[in-house]
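User: Here's a chain of 215 residues. Predict its fold as tokens.
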Amino acid sequence: MNPTAAKHLAFICLIIALIAQARAQDPALIRRVDDHYNHLRSLRARYTERYTGMGMDRSESGTLTLKKPGLMRWSYGAPPGKLFVLDGKFAWFYTPGDAQVSRAPAKQLDDLRSPLRLLLGHTQLAKELEQLATAPDGASFRITGVPKGMAQRVHLLTLIVAPNGAIERLKLEETDGASTEFTFSNLEEDIPLPATDFIFTPPPGIPIVAAQPPI
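Assistant: Prediction complete.
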């Protein structure tokens, strides 16, 4: 190999090494997210949820409240009255006007098919995600990976995280091209929340059916 070709090859190898380094994970940033949610006792935030796929582009919004251990409520303002309540034992899904209430055991939510596990502080990202990588994202940072055991369904999970470890956005991209993205704002942490916020009583006469939770 002539000296010029050798220099070019060395330069290319350096660029590849720099790219690989840029995609590498930063354990300190990852632990910051774990620690933030493991120590969090309660949370209230505004959220926007956007789903694209199967010919749909749907946006919904509302207020999220969370209280440990294992209590969560998504109160939708658009569409009005839609509810998802996690009472510690069951997850309830209901929209006013529906002919039934959907219910699923809480343990079925204990994975990365939804943002619930992350927000409840029930996980360590380094143990749950493969191909884990971090990168700057403006004043925040980005964490990407693929949930273990879900590579056939999930293409990529992306978290946009504030410097203090709070998740600002969460996007789940599926292998069929569909995606669900949550954006959080107006976060209030470790505030008093009444236990009654996490009790759901089905409307009289509305049957309860077993269902898998939606993404």
